[in-house]
DNA sequence: CGTTCCCTTGACACCGATCAACTCTGGTGG
DNA sequence: CCACCAGAGTTGATCGGTGTCAAGGGAACG
């Protein structure tokens, strides 16, 4: 249970928050110390469920998770994919109950953090507080981009756009190697993220493969030509706000 | 330019924030004083546009607005409808540029507030700060519910769900009278909010009318049987968190 | 009195859903 | 070692919901 600054336990998390504006070492150290209470959640288990009273903030240190809701007819819609370094629910303890669930898609390592600690941290360390804010706003921008994706893009473009988003987000935490990254999603999960069906995802993936846009096998995705896929998807990364913070 | 506590200029705004937890009079007074710089934005004009560097926080005091993005092929997707009392962009000044636009759908009265004033307010007045947080989280929940709507519901249900949402949100600010409220949206705007086309909205509205679920004419919507429409839409208002705040 | 905006309607096309069957793989237990 | 099974991916046939295109109507407005 070491909490050294370079603790690899939470390196993705620190990496993500310090991406936009370099954080002081002391802030990075403080972040590392957050990740004291780490639990492993097995694939397909809920990290937190609809109706629960949230008591902790959850941070994905490793592995993939999904925010989702299940409708009365049994269909499921995923509203967010949570990657290493992502905070699941920074402020949700303000509300009484979870209105959705979060499930581990792979075995995940999750940090459970007391809301009070997080709050103090963001007050005592303004730069860190600002970085947390920034991350929250980008999460919202991703939500909006999913709405656009679901509302106005045809199937193939929708999938391509999702892949571009994941490429960009995973790049930030060092999980992309020359267009190639691990994509531990079943076609069913991709379907529930894009508002399509598993069968149709299958056909569109074949199209993307035949177009020479991607390689996808055994949970490994390679984007053969990133700009080409981005063009196909009408992907504009501006909403991810990867440029530096504004000077105020 | 009066700023009395019961200033009707911003009554919807105060009403909305004090809905969940009664705010001290002093807090309400402080909110009213925010609304000093009020401008009218005419229908179809942008309140703020994609690419702009945001300098103010915008609060809708009266009228309707929409957050939207236009794609390369000219299609538009609305990602949020902003009603009287809604804050458009509480924290967006942290980011360098707007990644989407906000347009007035009707003539609107918008309060332009300096971010610094808002920030001080939420630090100096904890209950107010908490109310602002709460509003932000509910806005996020609405975004997620739109994703579910677009991804997994058939057209008629989608429209019904939108109407149920608007009914609930407008109730909070006293704009609903026994299932009846003003709905100043063209069918095209409803289409761009639900990921459908204007033509199809037209047909589905007729279906809803023939089912005896709604009356809609001249921008006035009457939900004839609210529980019935909610059932048709699989609408569960829990995500709007209308219950009281959790005691912490 | 024309113009513009919005609503309405019909015919038709097509994207993606549905249903059903089959393959392949890895895991598990006999 | 083999038999079985569950989960994931694949494929084909068919259906249906929604989009597209085109035309016309009504109300508001200059």
Summarize the structure.
Two copies of one chain form a homodimer. The first copy, chain A, is of the alpha+beta class and 248 residues long.
How do the strands and helices of this protein lay out in sequence?
2 copies of one chain form a homodimer.
Chain A: H1 11-17, H2 25-34, E1 38-41, E2 46-48, E3 57-62, E4 65-70, E5 76-82, E6 101-104, E7 108-113, H3 115-124, H4 126-152, H5 155-172, E8 180-182, H6 187-194, H7 198-210, E9 214-217, E10 220-223, H8 226-233
Antiparallel strand pairs in A: 1-7, 2-6, 3-7, 4-5, 4-6, 8-10, 9-10
Chain A binds a DNA duplex (30 and 30 nucleotides) through residues 154-155, 186-188, 196-200, 202-203, 205-206.
List keywords for this structure.
homodimer, 248 residues, alpha+beta, 4-stranded antiparallel sheet, 3-stranded antiparallel sheet, 10 strands, 41% helix, globular, disordered N terminus, DNA-binding
Question: How would you characterize this protein structure?
Answer:
- 2 copies of one chain form a homodimer.
- Chain A has 8 helices and 10 strands.
- With 248 residues, chain A is an alpha+beta fold.
- In chain A, strands 2-6-4-5 form a 4-stranded antiparallel sheet. In chain A, strands 1-7-3 form a 3-stranded antiparallel sheet.
- In chain A, a hairpin with a 2-residue loop joins β9 and β10.
- In chain A, α3 crosses α4 and α5 packs across α7.
- The first copy, chain A, is globular and about 50 Å long.
- Chain A starts with 10 loop residues before the first helix and ends in a 15-residue tail after the last helix.
- The N terminus of chain A is likely disordered.
- Chains A and B meet through β5 and α4 of A and β5 and α4 of B.
- Chain A binds a DNA duplex (30 and 30 nucleotides) through α7.
